[in-house]
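Quick entry between incubations.
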Amino acid sequence: MFNYLIRRLFQMAIVLFLSTMASYALLNLAPGGPLTFLTSVQRRMNQEDIARVRAYFELDLFLPVRFSRWLTGFPRGPITVGGQTYFADFVVGCRQPREVEIRYSDGRRELKTVGCREGQDVTLADLVDRPRSSKGIIFGDLGNSWQITRDRPVSAVVVSRLPRTLQLMMISLVLSIIIGIPIGVISAVRQYSAFDYTVTSMAFFGSSMPTFFFALLMILIFSITFKRMGWVYLPPGNAESVKDYVIPFIGAVDAGSLKDNILHLIMPVSVLTLFNVAGWSRYVRTSMLEVLRQDYVRTARAKGLIERVVIAKHALRNALIPFITLVVFSIPAAFGGAIITETVFNWPGMGRLYFDALGRTDYPVAMALLLITAVLTVVATLVCDVLYTVVDPRIRLS
Amino acid sequence: MTTSTMPRAIDLAAAEAMPEEVSQFRVILRRFLRHKLAVASLFVLAAIVLIAILAPVISPFDPTDIEVGNDFLAPGSVGRDGVRIHYLGTDTIGRDYWSRITYAARISLTVAVTAQVASVIIGILVGSISGYLGGTVDAVVMRGVEFMLTIPQLPLLLIISSLVIQNQEAIPVPEVLTNFMAWLLLIQPRDAVQVVLIIAILVSFGWLQDSRLMRGVVLSVKEQTFTEASRALGASDLRIILSHMIPNAIAPMIVSASLGLSGFIIYEAALSFLGLGIQDPTPTWGNMLSAAQSFMFQHPWLPLVSGTPIFLCSLAFNFVGDGVRDALDPRLKL
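Done. Structure below.
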């Protein structure tokens, strides 16, 4: 067991390193980034300004150097051993790349960057007085945001968004478990009954209905139509209102109060819960049907146990083993947020933060969120495997 | 006398007792027809496909023609020329909604079907090679595939498409492909680049599941006695793959493909809805829904019109896929 855990932790580290490197390269190799935005807003940017902005965002460093600085905070300058500095002239980047215009025979022209301009190399010695370097992801410093909260630490943005996402996801997770498991059990026990057919149709509905359309439909019905009719309506977006409002039958609602927050939660939670329940109840049903056919269930019945005990104690416990995977893997999803649902309901959580970060080329934020999701996913995989051995002694880790 | 009639009587009895000879296809068809919802869905899909094919004929306007000042016309209002009718009204900048919906059907269906076909082909290739070769190749490929399947797909899909859409000029797309898409979808070659890129993005994730499925089939067929017999008779690897692996894989692949189509419809719509897919002048149900979202407080019927086809299409594909699974492989039933 101990050896197994050590080996798994080692594998996890490698997987995490490779996946972070891949996504970092993906985001940083693509042209664009904050410079495109700046040059489109500020027309009068000259080469000097561009070089300064590039240095500010560390875009002038070579990709491996940048990645290493982002991950570990190293290199921070020349290596000093006993008062003696080494590698001070080592080139780690380029302030102004040399651009060459290529003219093709068919009249096309293309700007290509070839090498570096004379004397514009960035050396290790130049890194010493760079103020913005993060202390490195592995030391818990996620760096600074580029656009969303300019120059403020990414961790501050993430921490400010996390409670909202956890609130949304945890409520819907608990509701989905409370609703989904009984539905799945009942439809397995009463297979081919009217209830079972209803649940099956609901599962089809859930897997065919796009989340964004369903969310829009809910806003359309419960916010727009109900408000026009003068009925109890729900606020369409955000987590809290800016000013106080009055809802028929409920009365005055203070902005920022618990009541306000709950009213805002109802629709996004319902959307997430419905889709979870549709999928999970089907999952529980399948695995319950399988377990009900097993010999030990027949033995339990033959012993004369009442049906309720057979179902709850003998069948359900075993049927829920594969369900562990679903629940454990919904934890990384809970931290990552529901991107589409949060975007449609304008919910200020991690999912929308990620979407905004991509749209506004705030790559440190996007990278941080990806990293959090990746770490949690990898941990969830391990937790899942270990939990299996706990609940099912037949499974051995090796 | 009796001796001459007796054999005849036996013949008749035998003929009645013998089941009528039916082809494999008939059996499958009969099983499919028993699934009423699947048959109904097939009709719905046929209607949508017909609308998509006949888009230029049945839509009175060009989907990108703007009638300045005629924004948000009500359904059934008469157009600027006093002759043609906007059956479903006009959108935010005065383009005919019905025409856009029909052309969008053409685009969304083409994207989903092409992405699915390409995924299945890549999945079959990778799965059969990795399953048949086994060993290190298999281990490396399948670890990679499993890892890709573990990570949440939507965040990565969003990154890739946002990068691709931002830099679409820089990505070399074979002109043959864009020209073909432009011809098929009746759009400008410039806009067709996006369509090709979105298909590529969807395929980059779509083939994973298919390759695992194919590998599973190959591994199980490899152990069967008929494969062993065939090898004992001196059949080559290629022959075994072609005459045993592929035929055995067809049923599960068709089932997975028909169920996967609904996922591709939804993913494409989601990307376009979030603004990271096919962009505005080219109509798709997703980007029409996203445009409708901004004006839903004033014009609540707009999201209904562009969202319903996405739901209908994906529901119909799901039911047809379920029917196909019942018909082709009853053991697979959940």
